[in-house]
Write a structure and sequence with these properties.
binds fe (ii) ion, alpha/beta, 9 helices, single chain, 6-stranded mixed beta sheet, globular, 16 strands, 27% helix, Purple Acid Phosphatase, chain A, domain 2
Length: 333
């Protein structure tokens, strides 16, 4: 059995046996489980409130079978036992419309919509990624008109606002807009929540159903280890005595958001953008960056990480588990 066949077989096995057995068989990076402060070894296991799949960085395109890859991923998600109650899609759903001309943006949007509708029946909520924003680089795209910028993303994902929240099975979900423009730099973006969004976030968390645990979804990580390990090796990268982390790679308001989250009962923050997998926990808040559905933009593994998606079981007591699952895709030429 070759590696791909083995992975496909394991996905089928995992679907039959329950998701938790699968990643261990693949020796992936293990699971994240945050226990309630009062939990002990003799406490009964928590009761699952709902299962959530986290798909990010799909980057759909007709080239290299990107649409077939998304279809395969969605079939894998729905074959889990039990299947997820909800899918969170973390952005960069189209290959790129940041610099695309109108015809390409229309083609990619239609491909995403039709592929997703054909292969998935699970309720899905979307966040906006940097590659979902149409024609911000006006110089290259020549874009303009009513669907320019984030309006394209809102139309594509059926959203009325770029950030929002909702409640499900006793959990509160917050979806943020990470990607902000840079003054006088139409070809650039930086990661943070603008003032309007930050005020809304504060009020939203205060007004959520009392005591409900919170999941935050953003495209760009709010805190992340892979913001340091992404890309080519760098032995030292400093400005003066400060370590450099790209402002397009991790939220520049991570410290402020973390203070809000730890006070508000946020349990887990999900992101993508890096096409890499990491998790870090501090002050009771866990930050998970999941790998990409597209791997290295449909060219294979990215820095060794398989094309895959995250699965979380959220419990009634506010605890959760997380696994990252490859779905068996093999890159096409
Ligand atoms: Fe991406």
């Amino acid at each position: 059995m070759n590696d791909i066949d083995r992975r496909t077989f394991l996905l089928s096995t995992a679907a039959a046996a329950g998701v938790l057995a699968f990643p261990r068989a693949l020796h992936l990076q293990g699971s994240s489980h945050q226990s309630a402060p009062t939990a002990t070894a003799t406490t009964a296991p928590p009761t699952r409130a709902l299962r959530v799949a986290h798909l990010t960085d799909i980057h759909i395109q007709p080239e290299r079978g990107g649409d077939a890859g998304l279809a395969m991923c969605l079939e894998g998600v729905q074959s889990l036992s039990p299947p997820p109650d909800l899918i969170l899609v973390g952005g960069d759903s189209v290959m790129d419309v940041f610099e695309a001309k109108q015809a390409r943006a229309t083609e990619l949007g239609a491909l995403f919509t039709t592929t997703y509708a054909k292969h998935c029946k699970i309720p899905t909520r979307h966040a906006i990624g940097n590659h979902d924003i149409y024609g911000w680089t006006k110089r290259d795209s020549g874009a303009g008109g009513p669907a320019w910028g984030k309006q394209y993303s809102l139309d594509l994902f059926g959203l009325s606002n770029r950030y929002y929240s909702f409640d499900m099975a006793g959990w509160h979900f917050v979806v943020l807009d990470s990607v902000q423009p840079v003054k006088d730099r139409p070809d650039a973006y930086v990661a943070y929540c603008d003032d309007e969004q930050t005020r809304w976030l504060d009020a939203d968390l205060k007004g959520r159903p009392a005591g409900s645990p919170v999941v935050v979804l953003s495209h760009i990580p709010i805190l992340s280890l892979t913001s340091i390990t992404y890309g080519k090796h760098r032995s030292r990268e400093l400005i003066g005595q400060d370590t450099i982390i790209s402002a397009a790679s991790m939220h520049t308001d991570g410290h402020s958001l973390h203070n809000v989250f730890k006070a508000a009962g946020v349990m887990v923050c999900l992101s993508g953008h890096q096409h890499l997998l990491d998790r870090c926990s501090t002050d009771g808040v866990t930050y998970i960056c999941d790998g990409a559905v597209s791997g290295a933009w449909w060219k294979g593994r990215h820095q060794g990480l398989h094309e895959g998606f995250g699965v979380l079981d959220l419990s009634t007591d506010g605890t959760f588990t997380h696994e990252y699952l490859p779905y068996g895709w093999s890159a096409r030429a």
